[in-house]
Design a protein that fits this description.
The complex is a heterodimer. By secondary structure, chain A is α+β, with helices and mostly antiparallel strands. Chain A is built from nine helices and 17 strands. In chain A, strand 16 and strand 17 form a beta hairpin. In chain A, helix 4 packs across helix 6. The longest helix of chain A is centred in the first third of the chain and has 19 residues. Chain A is globular and about 70 Å long. The longest helix of chain B has 23 residues. The chains are: A alpha+beta, B mainly alpha. Chains A and B meet through helix 1 of A and helix 1, helix 2, helix 4, helix 5 and helix 6 of B.
C-alpha cells in the first residue's frame, strides 16, 4: 500500500468528521470574579490586583532571602540523592566536596537506609565544602534500638518500595548492603518506550548495561527537586504513561509498577513509569521475566542542564484556580487591603484529610478561628494547634507552588482517604523543596463562584 | 507577533485538523472537541515552551496523544469508535469511503493507528512523529511499515485501493 493512497484515504476519513466553531480558547485567560461587576468594580479589581502583587511580592519580584543564593562560579549545586542507599549518597555528596552528616529519620515512608533528602536540598547552590545534612530512613529496628522502639510500619507497603528500589539499585549499579538485587534467573524481555522488545539472554539479563536508558533515566528523574517514588501492584488494568500503553502481550498481567513523580505547577504532563513482571502470580516476589520502561522527558531536565536551579515560569494552573489561591493568600495577610471575601458562607476545615470542623458563617476572616487540633486521631498531636491561615501568610507569592491537586507527595504516605468532595481544587505548597518535616500542603476546594468551601491542611511530617 | 496573537493564529490554523486527528486516533467524536479544547488550553498555559519547540506540531500532537491516552485509561477503556456505515449504494461517495477508512482504522491496534494518523493525516515527518509518540525514529519507520501492511489487509481498504488505482 502506497503512502499517497493512505494520505488520500485518511483525508477522506477526516472529511467525515464535522467540526463546529468551538468554544473560544482565549489568548488571555479570563478570570471570572462573578461578584465584581461593571466598570467601577473592574477598576477596584485592577487596583486590588496591584495591591495583591504588592502584598504577595509579585511574580517578578526579586527572590526573597529564603530563595537561596544564586548559582555562581564559586558555588556548587547540591546533588539530588533521594532514594540512593546511604553509602552511595554520602559518596556522591563527598565527591562534590561537601562535609556530610548523616541523620536518621524515623519514618515508614522508605525502607531502612534509603536517602530521604538533604539540607540544603538538592539543587541548591552552596559554598564549596559546606556542611550537608543527609536524612536517611530508619525504622528503629537496628542500631541498638529495642524492639519496643521500632516503628510499626506497613510491611506490605515497604516491601513494594524495597522491590522497586532494588530495580533502581540494579539499573544504576548501586551495590550496597541495604538491599539485595532483584531476582533475575533467566531470560528477560526489556521494553523501552514503545520500541520493539529486546530479548535478553540469562547472561545479558544480569548486566545493567543491557537495559538501555533505564538506569540513566531513573537516576535523572530521582535527582530532580522534590522527586518521589510511588510503588503499587498493577492489577493489569494498565495506565497510559508518556503517551504509551503497555505492549499488548504485557497487558492484563499483574506487575509491580513504580513511578517517579515530581511536584509540578499545573496539571502533570510528564510520566516515568516502570512495570516489573515476574514469573507466577506472586507479585512482587518471583523472578523477573519482563521490565517495561515508559518515560517522557521532563522539562526540568533541560532547564537544570542549563541552570543549576529550577526556574519558575509562572503558575500553570487554571486561571480560576490561580485567582482563588491568590485571593486566599491575600486574605491571610493582615495588611491586606482587599475586602472581597474568598470564602463561601461556610468553610469546612480538614486536617490530614480528616474533617475537623465547619467555620461558622463570617468567622473565616478571623485567624484564631482557623486553629484546629486533630483530636484523638494522633495526627500531628505534637504540633497542635495548626493554622492554615498563618502557614500561608508566612510565604510570599514567589515562594508558593500551585497545582491542580490533589496533593501528592512521598511525605503524605498512609493518610486517610481524601475528602469526598465534588468541588474544584487548587493546592498550595512551598516552592522550595525540603525535608518532609518542613513540608505542608493546603488544599483549597472551591465552588463554581470561586468561593472556598473547604480547606484541607496536610503536613509532611505530622 | 506577540504570544497571544501567535497562539490565536495557531488555533485558527490547526484546530479543525486537531479535532479530526483526535477522532481518527480513537477519540469518540462527541468528546473530540472538548479534548482538543483542553489540549489547547494546556498549550496556552505553556505557550512559551510550546512555541520554542523544534517541531511545534509534534509537541502539540504529543499533548493530544497523551491527553487521549490518559482519558482513555480513565473513561474509554474498551470503547472502539465506530461510525454507522451507510447501507446500500452510498459507498461510492467520498463520505462512505471516509467512513470505511475510519472503521478500518478503528480495527487496527492503537500503535498502528497512532503512527498512521500522525504520519499521513497530521502530516508529521517521521522525526516529528517519533517526538509526538516518544519513540525512536527507527521504531516509527518499522511500525509505519507494519501498520500500512495491516491496513492493506483490510478487505474494504484493499477493495478501495484497488478501485482507486484502477
Amino acid at each position: 500500500m502506497r503512502e499517497d493512497q493512505v494520505r488520500e484515504l485518511l483525508a477522506l476519513a477526516g472529511e467525515t468528521i464535522e467540526v463546529g466553531p468551538g468554544a473560544e480558547v482565549e489568548a488571555s485567560p479570563r478570570r471570572r470574579w462573578p461578584y465584581v461587576a461593571g466598570a467601577a468594580a473592574a477598576a477596584v479589581a485592577i487596583a486590588a490586583s496591584v495591591a495583591v502583587a504588592a502584598t504577595l511580592g509579585g511574580r517578578d519580584a526579586s527572590p526573597g532571602p529564603q530563595s537561596g543564593p544564586a548559582p555562581g562560579q564559586d558555588q556548587v549545586t547540591v546533588a539530588g540523592v533521594y532514594g540512593m542507599p546511604v553509602d552511595i549518597a554520602r559518596r556522591e555528596l563527598e565527591a562534590q566536596g561537601f562535609q556530610v552528616e548523616v541523620q536518621h529519620e524515623e519514618t515508614c515512608r522508605e525502607p531502612l537506609g534509603r536517602s530521604l533528602a538533604t539540607s540544603p536540598v538538592g539543587g541548591s547552590a552552596v559554598d564549596p565544602g559546606s556542611a550537608i545534612v543527609l536524612a536517611v530512613a530508619y525504622q528503629g529496628s537496628s542500631e541498638g534500638a529495642g524492639a519496643d522502639d521500632a516503628l510499626q510500619c506497613d510491611g506490605a507497603d515497604l516491601l513494594l518500595r524495597r522491590k522497586a528500589w532494588q530495580v533502581v539499585d540494579f539499573a544504576n549499579r548501586w551495590v550496597t548492603d541495604v538491599g539485595s538485587h532483584p531476582e533475575i534467573t533467566g531470560q528477560v524481555g526489556y521494553w523501552e518506550n514503545g520500541a520493539d522488545p529486546q530479548g535478553l539472554s540469562a547472561g545479558q539479563a544480569t548486566d545493567p548495561a543491557s537495559y538501555g536508558i533505564l538506569g540513566e533515566r531513573l537516576r535523572q528523574q530521582l535527582a530532580l527537586p522534590g522527586a518521589w517514588l510511588r510503588a503499587a501492584i498493577d492489577d493489569g488494568r494498565d495506565f497510559a504513561c508518556a503517551g504509551l500503553e503497555l505492549a499488548p502481550s504485557l497487558q492484563q498481567r499483574p506487575s509491580l509498577w513504580f513511578e517517579i513523580s515530581q511536584p509540578h505547577d499545573g496539571p502533570p504532563n510528564e510520566c516515568t513509569m516502570v512495570n516489573v513482571f515476574v514469573n507466577g502470580d506472586d507479585v512482587p516476589n518471583g523472578a523477573i521475566t519482563d521490565i517495561a520502561l515508559r518515560s517522557s522527558d521532563h522539562p526540568l531536565l533541560d532547564e537544570l542542564s542549563n541552570d543549576a536551579q529550577a526556574s519558575a515560569e509562572g503558575f500553570d494552573v487554571d486561571a480560576d484556580a490561580e485567582a482563588v489561591a491568590l485571593r486566599f493568600l491575600t486574605a491571610t495577610r493582615p495588611e491586606s487591603p482587599i475586602s472581597l471575601s474568598p470564602y463561601a458562607e461556610q468553610v469546612d476545615l480538614y486536617l490530614g484529610n480528616r474533617f475537623i470542623t465547619t467555620l461558622p458563617a463570617g468567622s473565616a476572616h478571623a485567624p484564631a478561628s482557623w486553629e484546629v487540633c486533630p483530636g484523638p486521631s494522633g495526627y500531628a498531636e505534637f504540633a497542635c494547634p495548626f493554622n492554615a491561615f498563618e502557614t500561608a501568610s508566612r510565604r510570599t507569592r514567589d515562594q508558593i507552588r500551585m497545582s491542580e491537586g490533589p496533593a501528592d507527595s512521598v511525605c503524605l504516605a498512609r493518610l486517610d482517604e481524601k475528602p469526598q468532595r465534588d468541588e474544584h481544587l487548587v493546592v498550595l505548597s512551598p516552592r522550595e523543596f525540603s525535608m518532609c518535616s518542613q513540608q505542608w500542603f493546603i488544599e483549597l476546594y472551591y465552588d463554581e463562584d470561586q468561593r472556598i468551601t473547604a480547606v484541607n491542611l496536610l503536613l509532611g511530617s505530622p | 507577533m506577540g504570544q497571544d496573537e501567535d497562539f490565536t493564529a495557531y488555533v485558527a490554523a490547526r484546530r479543525t485538523r486537531l479535532v479530526r486527528t483526535a477522532v481518527l486516533l480513537g477519540c469518540p467524536e462527541r468528546d473530540a472537541e472538548d479534548l482538543v479544547h483542553t489540549v489547547l488550553l494546556r498549550c496556552l498555559r505553556s505557550w512559551r515552551r510550546v512555541s520554542r519547540a523544534d517541531h511545534r506540531d509534534a509537541y502539540v500532537n504529543r499533548m493530544l496523544v497523551n491527553a487521549l491516552h490518559d482519558a482513555r485509561s480513565r473513561r474509554w477503556t474498551g470503547e472502539v469508535p465506530t461510525a454507522d456505515l451507510p447501507d446500500g449504494p452510498g459507498r461510492e461517495t467520498d463520505l462512505a469511503v471516509g467512513l470505511v477508512v475510519r472503521r478500518a482504522l478503528a480495527a487496527l491496534s492503537g500503535e498502528h493507528r497512532d503512527v498512521l494518523v500522525l504520519r499521513f493525516f497530521a502530516d508529521l515527518s517521521e522525526r516529528a512523529t517519533a517526538e509526538a509518540l516518544g519513540l525512536p525514529v527507527g521504531t516509527v519507520k518499522s511500525r509505519t511499515a507494519r501498520a500500512l501492511a495491516a491496513l492493506a489487509c483490510d478487505d474494504d481498504i484493499a477493495g478501495l485501493t484497488g478501485e482507486r488505482s484502477a
